Amino acid sequence: MMDIRANKKPLHIIADGYGLSPGVDAAIRALLEQRKVRGTSCMTVFADWRDEAELLMPVIDACGGEVGLHLTLTSFMPLSGVKPMCSLRRRISQWLLGGVDKGKLQRELDAQLNAFVDAVGRVPDYIDGYQHVHFLPVVRDWLKARRELLISPRGKSPWLRGEPQQGLALGLPQRGKIAVVERMANGFNAEMREAGYEVRGPLVGFYEKRNPQRFRETLQFVLRNAPDDAVMMCRPGIVDPVLVARERRVATREVEFAELMRQ
């Protein structure tokens, strides 16, 4: 049985996407209660976010876990607009070819941060991004501009999820995916540390989502080989109609939940 407080190695197993659906949220709360994960990053763009936050915070207080903000700039309805956000492919094209509406996107980031603080009552313990969007230049600029607002009453700003490393992958498909994320993340760690943030990493936990059973092998590989202060992302959940409506590939959710619970 794995208790994250008992791990000698400071591996941060973080559940992404609290707020995505009631089934995802229930699974993450169960993992926190059993201390199978160290924290969860929250998506604040959905109408039921505040209700789900009310269920989360007593669990966080009881287990001493961390609660983060999962910045969201793709796929869903924004808080600050009336049209759905574009795909990650389109975001990357905007970044590479120009055409980013910096003011519009940063207003959306402000709205998501405000929704987090309004529901949780404090700034996030850490910040990362859905589909790794926190690595994009427009988000880096926002993080630098908002750092003073993000400092807690104890004088500490949120830590950030850092760059991945291809060397911490099980095979070629994973290395290819990590290479794309590495391109997005290039220079992020140094830039954010210069801005005054703590950056934790490397980011680990990549595996082939079309083969959910690879998660177990990936988890064991990470537990054996990840360096100190590595951050492992995971996406546990219980599949429900809300999740099916919001996410295209859901089979990995229950596999990850079951595997984390049995550790």
Helix-strand layout with pairing:
Layout lengths: L11 E7 L3 H12 L5 E4 L6 H15 L2 E6 L16 H10 L4 H19 L5 E4 L7 H10 L12 E3 L10 H14 L2 H7 L4 E2 L2 E2 L9 H12 L5 E4 L6 H6 L4 H12 L1
Parallel strand pairs: 1-2, 1-8, 2-3, 3-4, 4-5, 5-6, 7-8
What is the string of SSEs from the N terminus onward?
Answer: EHEHEHHEHEHHEEHEHH
Number of domains: 1
CATH topology category name = TIM Barrel
Number of β-strand runs: 8
Q: Could you tell me the radius of gyration in angstroms?
A: 17 Å
Mean of all residue-level pLDDT scores: 92
From the spread of the alpha carbons, the general shape counts as globular
Low-confidence stretches: 1-8
Task: Please give the count of helices.
Answer: 10
Q: CATH superfamily name?
A: Glycoside hydrolase/deacetylase
What is the percent of helical residues? Answer: 40-55%
SSE-based structural type: alpha/beta
CATH uppermost class = Alpha Beta
- CATH architecture designation: Alpha-Beta Barrel
Q: What is the strand arrangement across the widest sheet?
A: 6-5-4-3-2-1-8-7
Strand content: 5-15%
C-alpha end-to-end distance: 5 Å
Concise overview:
The chain contains ten helices and eight strands. It has an eight-stranded parallel beta sheet.
Description:
This protein has 263 residues and is α/β, with parallel strands linked by helices. It has one domain (12-262): TIM Barrel (Alpha-Beta Barrel). Helices cover 44% and strands 12% of the residues. Strands 6-5-4-3-2-1-8-7 form an 8-stranded parallel β-sheet. Strand 4 (126-129), helix 5 and strand 5 form a beta-alpha-beta unit. The longest helix is centred in the middle third of the chain and has 19 residues, at 102-120. It comes from Rhizobium paknamense. Its EC number is 3.5.1.105. Its cofactor is Mg(2+).
